[in-house]
Amino acid sequence: MGGGARELAGYLAALAGWMAALAAAVLPHWRQSSYAGDAIITAVGLHEGLWMSCAAQSTGQVQCRLHDSLLSLEVHIQTSRALMVISLLLGFFGIIVSVVGMKCTKVGEEDPVTKSRIAVAGGVLFVLSGLCTLAAVSLYATQVTYEFFRESTIPVNARYEFGSALFVGWGAASLSLLGGSLLCCSWPAKERRGQHYQRQAQPSTAREYV
What we know:
InterPro entries: Claudin (IPR006187), Claudin_CS (IPR017974), PMP22/EMP/MP20/Claudin (IPR004031). Pfam families: PMP22_Claudin (PF00822). Belongs to the claudin family. This protein is an alpha+beta fold. The protein has a domain at 3-27 and 70-188: Butyryl-CoA Dehydrogenase, subunit A, domain 3, CATH 1.20.140.150. It is 62% helix and 10% strand. The chain has five helices and five strands; from the N terminus they run αββββααβαα. The chain is elongated, with a radius of gyration of 24 Å. 32% of the residues are buried.
């Protein structure tokens, strides 16, 4: 795969990862009611996310409510919120920086070495964004797992388990890490520097023959 094609593939993968991370942050399905056990004790399915909680009736009616207070939220929710916001900001700046540094764009093409370094910087931002998404989703999933398996008087089918947003977040982190890694491969190689030196040396040799 050529350098330009590799950069484009990495950019598209990272962009898809950023969009998936945005969807995961907004979705209220980070955890949902568990239906494990012998019987379902309620006809209402509960879903909770970083910003709101929802109740889905068996009739198909869904009611959502934003979390009332920020300070009253559990620590893992506040931490996951902060990590997802940081991830989206890093990914947003990575999108802008990568566009400037990619070979398929015309911006700064007179200096290919600097342009490649800018693409690498965009790749680093995407990698950091993916790590933040991975940390947020994994932290939340760890808390859900702990609450599900800890000894409690709450029946199993009244507890919470993983929601679909967690799997979307893991996929988003994987795409961001993959795309950022591909963009980081744009670092100028030694061969390019050697070709640059040869081009500078060609006019002097021509003068000597004249």
